[in-house]
Amino acid sequence: MLTGKTVLVGVSGGISAYKTVFLVSALRKQGANVHVIMTRHATEFVAPLTFETMSNNRCISDMFDRDYEYDVRHISLAKAADLIIVAPATADFIAKAANGIADDMLTTVVLAAKCRKLASPAMNTAMYENPVTQDNLDKLRHYGWGIVEPNSGPLACGDVGKGKMPEPQELLMHVIYELACEKDMKGLKVVVTAGPTQEAIDPVRFITNHSSGKMGYALAQACAMRGAEVTLVSGHTALDAPMGVTRQDVTSAADMHDAVLALTPQADMIFKAAAVADYTPATVYDHKVKKSDDDMSIPLVRTADILADVAKIRRDDQIICGFAMETEDLLANARGKLERKKLDMICANSLRTEGAGFSGDTNVVTVITADEVCELGKLSKLETAHRIIDKAMQLRAARMEG
Asked: Among the four residues 287, 300, 317, 376, which has the most C-beta atoms within 10 Å?
């Protein structure tokens, strides 16, 4: 996801520097060209050779080192960078960066660089909470830095509190969100639904389906990576909300209906990837229903049709995308749903197709519009999400031009 990108990793003098070794490795695995710049204090925690081995580039720590081919190193590195991430960012580094002090290679490159910059503060809780440090962080934000908030927990000093540097995979995701995609959805508000609904029978039992929520969560993540403001309306899943996404948890089809209808007026795009129950028990018992020798039947009633109700209040400039999971007559059934519910596009897949389905990490989707049928083939769900979004953005562009 980072092929062709140059990432400068700054390492200042904190015990968390050992984690940065794994961040550099992860960036390389994503295809990035990684250069590491260490402060003198950082070299007391991790040897520069370690970073050179992981990055396959010379690690810079001495402003006046002459043992390399001549160039104005702080300028050439600053120009080459697509992004700078400083992890750990100590209170000392933060103070210098916030006030334009350039007294070593790291702070000098940071001051010379025009690219996007991220800082991951890591320090003792009292130092982090000190008003001076907080003022310096606010100054960095004012100057365009992204701040990766530290985690809370036991610290190396023995205290417990906020100040732990996040794990390398979390830092990697921040870099990916910054660099992997063009921000072609910046300024757009997107609603995505995901996961199953649960229709209560009694306080113990409910009717549901096999949806894992993975496709909807991938759509939410892809939209956020492309700069959109995303609200994810989610049924019960085992998934964590993607970074940069606001999640609204719901339980029943009625809950999801109310949440989506409330969000529709402000949305520019709606992706309805949730597996919403078509029926719900006519009566919900307030006590656990005991089994008996008699056969039990549960009268059901139809749930509200979310897409049909969205169609009644939608704006002309909105793009509405539905999903259709079928076991037979895939294209005919999906096209019928597209027309009945007045959708702009529908994503159809078959439970019988290898690589498609609820719980896997891949999908096999056919995107259908009024004028086109596009088979995406077997892709990861994240790549499928990006291809679906590409089509939605094409439809939006054509509508805006029209």
From this structure: 376
DSSP symbol at 156:
T
AA letter at 386: H
User: Which domains can be identified in the chain, with CATH numbers?
Assistant: 6-179 (3.40.50.1950), 189-401 (3.40.50.10300)
CA distance 36 to 51: 7
| pLDDT for residue 282 | 95
Helix or strand holding residue 139 (H, E): helix 131-142
Ramachandran quadrant class, 320 (left: phi over 0; alpha: psi -120 to 50; beta: rest): beta
How far apart CA 378 and CA 363 sit, in angstroms, is 6
pTM (two decimals) = 0.89
Going through 52-114 in order, the beta strands assigned E by DSSP cover 83-89
d(CA 395, CA 61): 50
**In this structure, are strands 279-281 and 269-272 parallel, antiparallel, or unpaired?**
unpaired
Catalytic residues: 157
Q: What is the pLDDT of residues 37-85, one digit of tens each?
A: 999 999 999 999 999 999 999 998 876 665 555 455 567 888 999 999 9
Would you say the C-alpha torsion 233, 239, 243, 249 has a positive or negative sign? Answer: positive
CA distance 119 to 128: 13
pLDDT in tens, 238-258: 999 999 999 999 999 999 999
- How far from chain centre, in Å, is Cα 185? 14
